[in-house]
Design goal:
Distance between the termini: 23 Å
Number of helices: 11
Number of domains: 2
Helix content: 40-55%
Oligomer: single chain
CATH superfamily of the largest domain: Regulatory protein AraC
Strand content: 15-25%
CATH class of the largest domain: Mainly Beta
Shape: globular
Largest sheet: 5 strands, antiparallel
CATH topology of the largest domain: Jelly Rolls
Low-confidence stretches: 1-5
Length: 301
């Protein structure tokens, strides 16, 4: 169940917020998903874990970062740690949700880059289109996997290895179907580097806007990192970092009660004037006027 009350920050939830069984704490949760879920969460919010949401009934809208996607079941949505999202659901929405941490996935998979190899996590296109499933057989297979995952995780003698295998089957099946709609000529290694850059940016964007910092984190030169990012995304590393700052300003303006000065301080701008000039350079409007305009548009819908 969601609450729309504004706060001074977009909340970040850990898996502890959703897990009732202490034995599963900090690892995973798989369960049915409907409009009557009893967890109190604020929208929009972020996670520090991964989410796979399979919906087979209902309709609505799923807003992930700055992109809005229509819910057209059967479909699967994927969320990476740090992404902000908001769900607008019909009362008849039904499906299943699998939440898991990086640590859980790493327990039984020794390829530390495996999660980053999936196209739907930390997308190099910086968008998160859902997987719309057209074949009833594929939809039924995924549904059965989620049902089995729910059963396994709720048994007294549940096996994390079996649950991990179920998750792996879900991800591999989705990857097979998802990849049919994606064409890329970029080398896999280069894509992993870009995804690691996105991950590092998501984790430290408040404090670090310097390409040299991220290159050091990835153990490559700043020039090499810039070249790879340009090759894969068509954008410069600097422009991606600036876009991240801009997105965060917009999120805080629209979804919190923080004033412009508080936002500037939170995002480590030198002062209000600098942040206002930065925002106006890209949006052709001041932060305050942007907030007023967008909130007015929302009220008129």
């Amino acid at each position: 169940m969601a609450t729309n009350k504004k706060d001074n920050k977009i909340p970040v939830y850990s898996l502890d917020s959703f897990v009732q069984n202490a034995s599963q704490q900090n690892y995973f949760r798989v369960e049915p998903f409907d409009a009557n879920r009893h967890f109190q969460v604020a929208y929009p919010h972020r996670h520090d874990f991964y989410e796979v949401l399979f919906l087979h009934t209902g309709k609505g809208l799923h807003i992930i970062d700055s992109h809005a996607y229509e819910i057209k079941p059967p479909c699967v949505f994927f969320l990476s740690p740090g992404q902000a999202h908001k769900l607008e659901l019909s009362k008849d929405i039904e499906g299943y949700i699998f939440l898991f941490t990086t640590e859980f996935y790493a327990l039984f998979d020794f390829n530390k880059n495996k999660l980053l190899e999936f196209p739907f996590f930390f997308s190099v296109e910086q968008s998160n289109p859902p997987l719309y499933i057209h074949n009833p057989t594929d939809s039924m297979f995924l549904k059965e996997l989620f049902i089995r995952g729910c059963f396994e995780s709720n048994t007294a003698s549940h096996s994390m290895e079996v649950t991990h295998t179920i998750l792996q089957l879900i991800l591999l099946t989705c990857n097979q179907l998802y990849s049919k709609n994606i064409t890329t000529h970029a080398p896999p290694k280069s894509q992993i580097i870009v995804k690691k850059f996105f991950l590092a940016l998501e984790e430290t964007y408040i404090y670090n806007y310097n390409i040299e910092f991220y290159a050091q984190q990835l153990s490559i030169t700043a020039n090499h990192l810039s070249q790879i990012i340009k090759q894969i995304t068509g954008k410069s590393a600097g422009s991606i970092i600036q876009e991240k700052r801009l997105v965060e300003i917009k999120r805080l303006l629209l979804h919190t009660d923080m004033n412009v000065g508080q936002i500037a301080e939170h995002l480590h701008f030198n002062d209000i004037s600098y942040m206002t000039k930065f925002f106006k350079k890209y949006m052709n409007i001041t932060p305050l006027h942007y907030r007023e305009k967008e909130l007015k548009n929302a009220d008129n819908k």
